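User: Please predict the structure of the protein below. I'd like the answer in structure-token form so I can feed it into my own downstream comparison script.

Assistant: Understood. Taking the following sequence of 437 residues as input:
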Amino acid sequence: MVLPWDRGAARTPEHDRGNGDARLVVDFARGRESGRAAEARLAEAVGLAASIGLVVVHTAILPLRIRRPSTLLGEGQVSVLGHAIAEQKVTVAIVDAALSPVQQRNLERAWSCKVIDRTGLILDIFGERAATREGTLQVELAHLDYQRSRLVRSWTHLERQRGGFGFLGGPGETQIEADRRLIGERIVKLKKELEQVRRTRGLHRSARKRVPFPVVALVGYTNAGKSTLFNVLTGAEVAARDQLFATLDPTMRGLVLPSGRRIILSDTVGFISELPHELVAAFRATLEEVAEADVILHVRDAAHPESTAQRADVLAVLEDMVADDTLDPTWPERTIEVLNKADLLGGVANVPARNGSVAVSAITGEGLDTLCAAIDARIAAGMELADYAIAPQDGARLAWLYQHGEVIDRADDEAAVRVKVRLLPADRARFENRAGD
């Protein structure tokens, strides 16, 4: 059943039934200040639930006058939903909001079923999809951080038990403390393991810099078509599905641009509105690929009705990275906006491209030549012109310049080979530091 955000409107109840265990998705409209239509938020919540195989049998959009500390919802709303849950034998209720441990416990008692909030749902999705060692460690760390504040929910049946002498607590208190200690110890261990994985990734980045190619990172809202675009550009076979969070682990492949310049293209996890803060911290390594990139491709789903709001969500995350000193504040200057899924709008010509954005279709291939040319031009714009005099017998240094730069002019004589070359700033610094020029 879908309840309208406009309280005066009325709609015909609709049920979407499927086989398997019953599931309920409840979306709470935040109001007009969120910049999103309530129906779009609900559709996203349903998509998140469906992406891990949950069968959605009932949906509702509920306007909130006030947020109640005990249940978030009003008593009448809790009661009405309780009847719907009982009638349809729902086993899991998903609330598209951040629930406190107390709210989650009270709703479970009122509805007699498992209740998870938006953070819990996204954590479950990440836990199912993470494939690499780093990804699984990050997800486990996020899960433990999330669960640590909710241990009181798991042991409420023991908290009422008292035992021992004097001021000694009963088994309930002991169990909670033991559980917190075990989780704390596991978190410390995971952080150490993640630090080792990050050091390994740092070594890989250093190795790439020794044979340096510009890095181009794909970023964008989840399901914007990043992996499909990545595959068609590089010939890779990264899993690309019409599904939220189909990609969780960063993937890198080589690509040759029209100019002959080689680059490394990096596919990253998609962003989503109100990403749980536990995951923002846990997936820092994925964001590091964006921070290291010479060019950022912001891939947007041009055909999505909430494309503008999705763009704002991605930019907000990138700005947060700037605030945390993870990303250079000049990132907009190295960003190209890619308006994907033009085929759903009738072709590239029907997509309004502004401020240097490029319209493409990763499915039909239309606009990809223009995109590659734009990447080429953006990399070239960031290169610096330098003059070097190299001894004629020093063929290795001359070959390095040809391999990593664009030689504009060359003059040979008996004393030296004089070359004028365009280099990326990092390559120029590396060449001059090693050569002592």
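That's the full token string. The chain has four domains: 22-121, 130-193, 213-381, 384-435.
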